[in-house]
């Protein structure tokens, strides 16, 4: 056997065990070590999958032989066992990854855009193999050193071995999908009972290893400290949330949890898994809305661009008329939102880098709502700038259940500066208090109002772009579809960042990545979809929480979280610190409007309307006489009534690619054997680790409403998708929602609709909110701006 020291895999310069470690100062040695590690990382990433696997197996065998010869000690036995496990899992995983990679190109949008869930899964598994390769080489180079930290390296190796085992299970699941799905499809569309079995089997897999030492290993290194901070905050916040829900007071012992989770990755991973699997959508709403607390939002805005205008507006619920695009002489009435709670105002935020004509008009000022500090900044600037020819209408993300334009304000200010155009961001009502179709109705109403009153917003409206991220991307597509169905002006283009286009509970290769994604775990995705679809009916709040309102809960729990982290850190440094147990008595605050449960709308606390709350309220065109007789007969009559939803089936909408586009992909299904049952997809002798937490609370919501094209635009018929304007999608390669973007782009491309898809590497879902974090997120955010600029300033015809 070739020893590790004789292998050609390079030893990092300055690493322990190299001759250069004795030279130079400590900082010089550290610099050489980092450069050497970076060089080794580049070399390993340039290796193909088979070379990486073979190198890892060789190192594992060498380390296994060494520790087996070190006597009967427990540590040596565990180290020998972990390297034996690494060897076994690597050899078992490599053939499956090779098969997936061999057919992955069949699911790309085109040759210039090599991206889909199969590629992402292979890449993630390869990242784990590369990390184990580096760690195995480090162990082989330093195992005889007196400075070798045995316990630390053993714990890391065991964590990554567990992660590799779980990734092997995901690879088998992906292989099963490849064999079961229709040719060219990334989403499973078969028997709902089979997909239910698949998802419930998938949910039982252990996830804690991905939230501890292995947290964020697949992402760029600059993101990992942020993810660790979020995970510590989440588990600490989750403990307080659960105690509040049970009516328990915060005790001194509970305040130590922050420090405890910070120094114990295994404990943090186990608690993170329990929280994401068992806590309800109200927890996620509360946690995500932390960013809207005044202190945190002020800190975020300090690092963002300074704009002249950032003001909250309230659009009154009044009807108005707009001209039909086909015949401007014919007017159509736009009614205010009605679903669930009846007519109500729609909140929007106007952001403009310059003060433009119309933005300080009395008519616009009459719509303003105070948020505390002045939102119209009085800086010394030249006189009013003329109206911009462009306007951006933005719809924020947040899983349909959380956040407002305030959360997204930092990057929107940068957009306003870079694009030189005003931005109108819509604060739609949030689920579960306002399920579908309330958000769609409000966004459509606000979009139409912006088109009609663009002069008040500082724009001539010559070019209008709809832009949104995640759930906001979904609403951008559905608002445009609704505008086309009404016959009013559709936007000149759409920029959607990592959008959700398929809300139906189903499986795809990229959705498998939710097992390890700390920002989009499957249980959380399911709860958000459940809430938006109207399936979240229980009120989990106790009487004290109801009295506080969600805003009060966010403020109270955030204060507790900060106190927890502060005292937890103190207890970490001084374990004998004595704390006086003081019970926290939250002060009563005004009840927030039940529709939103967020921060920026607190000025509009209105009583709940007594009007109907039917979750299946229709989105029907009430005036079909306004349709032009010249419309083509294949244009569908748009009705989202209860009857239409109740009979909607996958076969009712044509979401197939053209037959000629799917001919090549039909070969993929023949390359792999088909298993009738999902849990028979594992080879004999392979047993992934199962979760120790009860998965009963993870409800995979299934309802005909999820197949509605205004919820899942990927399922829209061809005639509807052909009404969309040019679409520009920016997706993340490691995002569980990647396949939503790829399949939506492929459908548009098959219909010869103008569409572009850009996929950024090594970044998580939601990178726009992390734009200031590192160079990679700044570049990805700049790509979104570039896509919007293509809509606002389209390239002219070639000369």
UniProtKB/TrEMBL annotation:
<comment type="similarity">
    <text>Belongs to the 'GDXG' lipolytic enzyme family.</text>
</comment>
<dbReference type="InterPro" id="IPR033140">
    <property type="entry name" value="Lipase_GDXG_put_SER_AS"/>
</dbReference>
<dbReference type="InterPro" id="IPR029058">
    <property type="entry name" value="AB_hydrolase_fold"/>
</dbReference>
<feature type="compositionally biased region" description="Basic residues">
    <location>
        <begin position="27"/>
        <end position="42"/>
    </location>
</feature>
<dbReference type="GO" id="GO:0005811">
    <property type="term" value="C:lipid droplet"/>
</dbReference>
<keyword id="KW-1207">Sterol metabolism</keyword>
<keyword id="KW-0551">Lipid droplet</keyword>
<feature type="active site">
    <location>
        <position position="470"/>
    </location>
</feature>
<dbReference type="InterPro" id="IPR013094">
    <property type="entry name" value="AB_hydrolase_3"/>
</dbReference>
<dbReference type="GO" id="GO:0019433">
    <property type="term" value="P:triglyceride catabolic process"/>
</dbReference>
<keyword id="KW-0153">Cholesterol metabolism</keyword>
<keyword id="KW-0963">Cytoplasm</keyword>
<dbReference type="GO" id="GO:0004771">
    <property type="term" value="F:sterol ester esterase activity"/>
</dbReference>
<keyword id="KW-0378">Hydrolase</keyword>
<dbReference type="GO" id="GO:0047372">
    <property type="term" value="F:monoacylglycerol lipase activity"/>
</dbReference>
<dbReference type="GO" id="GO:0008203">
    <property type="term" value="P:cholesterol metabolic process"/>
</dbReference>
<feature type="domain" description="Alpha/beta hydrolase fold-3">
    <location>
        <begin position="686"/>
        <end position="768"/>
    </location>
</feature>
<feature type="compositionally biased region" description="Basic and acidic residues">
    <location>
        <begin position="371"/>
        <end position="380"/>
    </location>
</feature>
<feature type="region of interest" description="Disordered">
    <location>
        <begin position="361"/>
        <end position="383"/>
    </location>
</feature>
<comment type="subunit">
    <text>Monomer and homodimer. Interacts with CAVIN1 in the adipocyte cytoplasm. Interacts with PLIN5.</text>
</comment>
<dbReference type="Pfam" id="PF06350">
    <property type="entry name" value="HSL_N"/>
</dbReference>
<keyword id="KW-0472">Membrane</keyword>
<feature type="domain" description="Hormone-sensitive lipase N-terminal">
    <location>
        <begin position="53"/>
        <end position="360"/>
    </location>
</feature>
<dbReference type="InterPro" id="IPR002168">
    <property type="entry name" value="Lipase_GDXG_HIS_AS"/>
</dbReference>
<dbReference type="InterPro" id="IPR010468">
    <property type="entry name" value="HSL_N"/>
</dbReference>
<keyword id="KW-0442">Lipid degradation</keyword>
<dbReference type="Pfam" id="PF07859">
    <property type="entry name" value="Abhydrolase_3"/>
</dbReference>
<keyword id="KW-0443">Lipid metabolism</keyword>
<keyword id="KW-1003">Cell membrane</keyword>
<comment type="pathway">
    <text>Lipid metabolism.</text>
</comment>
<feature type="region of interest" description="Disordered">
    <location>
        <begin position="602"/>
        <end position="652"/>
    </location>
</feature>
<protein>
    <recommendedName>
        <fullName>Hormone-sensitive lipase</fullName>
        <ecNumber>3.1.1.23</ecNumber>
        <ecNumber>3.1.1.79</ecNumber>
    </recommendedName>
</protein>
<feature type="region of interest" description="Disordered">
    <location>
        <begin position="1"/>
        <end position="44"/>
    </location>
</feature>
<dbReference type="GO" id="GO:0005901">
    <property type="term" value="C:caveola"/>
</dbReference>
<keyword id="KW-0753">Steroid metabolism</keyword>
<keyword id="KW-0597">Phosphoprotein</keyword>
<dbReference type="GO" id="GO:0005829">
    <property type="term" value="C:cytosol"/>
</dbReference>
<feature type="domain" description="Alpha/beta hydrolase fold-3">
    <location>
        <begin position="392"/>
        <end position="540"/>
    </location>
</feature>
<dbReference type="GO" id="GO:0004806">
    <property type="term" value="F:triacylglycerol lipase activity"/>
</dbReference>
<comment type="pathway">
    <text>Glycerolipid metabolism; triacylglycerol degradation.</text>
</comment>
């Amino acid at each position: 056997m070739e020893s590790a020291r004789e292998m050609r895999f390079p030893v990092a310069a300055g690493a322990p065990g190299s001759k250069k470690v004795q030279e130079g100062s400590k900082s010089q040695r550290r610099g050489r070590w980092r450069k050497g590690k970076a060089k080794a990382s580049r070399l390993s990433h340039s290796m193909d999958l088979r070379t990486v696997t073979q190198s890892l197996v060789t190192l594992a065998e060498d380390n296994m032989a060494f520790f087996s010869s070190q006597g009967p000690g427990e540590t040596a036995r565990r180290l020998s066992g972990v390297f034996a496990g690494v060897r076994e899992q690597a050899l078992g995983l490599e053939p499956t990854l090779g098969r997936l990679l061999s057919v992955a190109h069949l699911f790309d949008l085109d040759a210039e855009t090599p991206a889909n869930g199969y590629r992402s899964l292979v890449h993630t598994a390869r990242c784990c193999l590369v990390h184990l390769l580096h760690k195995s080489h480090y162990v082989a180079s330093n195992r005889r050193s007196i400075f070798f930290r045995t316990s630390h390296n053993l714990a890391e190796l065991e964590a990554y071995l567990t992660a590799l085992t779980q990734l092997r299970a995901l690879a088998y699941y992906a292989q099963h999908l490849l064999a079961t799905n229709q040719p060219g499809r990334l989403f499973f569309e078969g028997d709902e009972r089979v997909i239910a079995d698949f998802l419930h089997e998938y949910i039982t897999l252990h996830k804690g290893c991905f939230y501890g030492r292995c947290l964020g290993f697949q992402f760029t290194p600059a993101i990992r400290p942020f993810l660790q901070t979020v995970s510590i905050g989440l588990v600490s916040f989750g403990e307080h949330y659960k105690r509040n829900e049970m009516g328990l007071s915060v005790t001194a012992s509970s305040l130590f949890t922050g420090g405890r989770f910070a120094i114990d990755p295994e404990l943090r991973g186990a608690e993170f898994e329990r929280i994401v699997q068992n806590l309800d959508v109200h927890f996620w709403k509360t946690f995500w809305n932390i960013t809207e607390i005044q202190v945190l939002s002020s800190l975020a805005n300090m690092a963002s661009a300074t704009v002249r205008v950032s003001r909250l507006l309230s659009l009154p619920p009044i009807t108005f008329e707009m001209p039909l695009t086909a015949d401007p002489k014919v007017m159509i009435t736009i009614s205010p939102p009605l679903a669930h709670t009846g007519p109500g105002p729609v909140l929007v935020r106007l952001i403009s880098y310059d003060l433009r004509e119309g933005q300080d008009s009395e008519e616009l000022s009459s719509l303003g709502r105070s948020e505390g500090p002045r939102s119209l900044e009085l800086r010394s600037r030249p006189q009013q700038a003329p109206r911009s020819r462009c306007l951006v209408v933005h719809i924020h993300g947040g899983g349909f259940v959380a956040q407002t334009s305030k959360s997204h304000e930092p990057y929107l200010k940068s957009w306003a500066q870079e694009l030189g155009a005003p931005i109108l961001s819509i604060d739609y009502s949030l689920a579960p208090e306002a399920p579908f179709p309330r958000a769609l109705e409000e966004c459509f109403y606000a979009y139409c109002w912006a088109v009609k009153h663009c002069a008040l917003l500082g724009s001539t409206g010559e070019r209008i772009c709809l832009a949104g991220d995640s759930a906001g991307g979904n609403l951008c597509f559905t608002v445009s579809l609704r505008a086309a169905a009404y016959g009013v002006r559709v936007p000149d283009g759409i920029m959607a960042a990592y959008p959700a286009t398929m809300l139906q509970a189903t499986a795809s290769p990229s959705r498998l990545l939710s097992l390890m994604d700390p920002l989009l775990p499957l249980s959380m995705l399911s709860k958000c979809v459940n809430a938006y679809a109207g399936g979240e009916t229980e009120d989990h709040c106790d009487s004290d929480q109801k009295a506080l309102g969600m805003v009060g809960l966010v403020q109270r729990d955030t204060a507790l979280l900060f106190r927890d982290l502060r005292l937890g850190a103190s207890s970490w440094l001084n374990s004998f610190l004595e704390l006086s147990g003081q019970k926290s008595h939250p002060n009563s605050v005004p009840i927030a409007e039940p529709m939103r449960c967020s921060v920026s709308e607190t000025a509009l606390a209105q009583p709940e309307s007594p009007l109907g709350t039917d979750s299946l309220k229709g989105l029907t065109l009430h005036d079909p006489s306004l349709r032009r007789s010249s419309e083509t007969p294949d244009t569908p009559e748009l009705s989202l009534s209860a009857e239409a939803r109740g009979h909607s089936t996958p076969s009712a909408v044509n979401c197939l690619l053209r037959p000629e586009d799917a001919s090549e992909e039909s070969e993929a299904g023949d390359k792999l054997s088909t298993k009738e049952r999902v849990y028979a997809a594992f080879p004999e002798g392979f047993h992934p680790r199962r979760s120790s937490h009860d998965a009963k609370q993870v409800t995979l919501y299934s309802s005909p409403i999820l197949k509605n094209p205004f919820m899942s635009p990927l399922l829209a018929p061809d005639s509807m998708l052909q009404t969309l304007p040019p679409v520009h999608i920016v997706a993340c390669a490691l995002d569980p929602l990647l396949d939503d973007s790829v399949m939506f782009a492929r459908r548009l491309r098959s219909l010869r609709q103008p569409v572009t898809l850009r996929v950024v590497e090594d970044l998580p879902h939601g990178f726009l909110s992390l734009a200031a974090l590192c160079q990679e997120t700044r570049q990805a955010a700049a790509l979104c701006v570039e896509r919007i600029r293509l809509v606002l300033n389209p390239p002219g015809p070639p000369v």
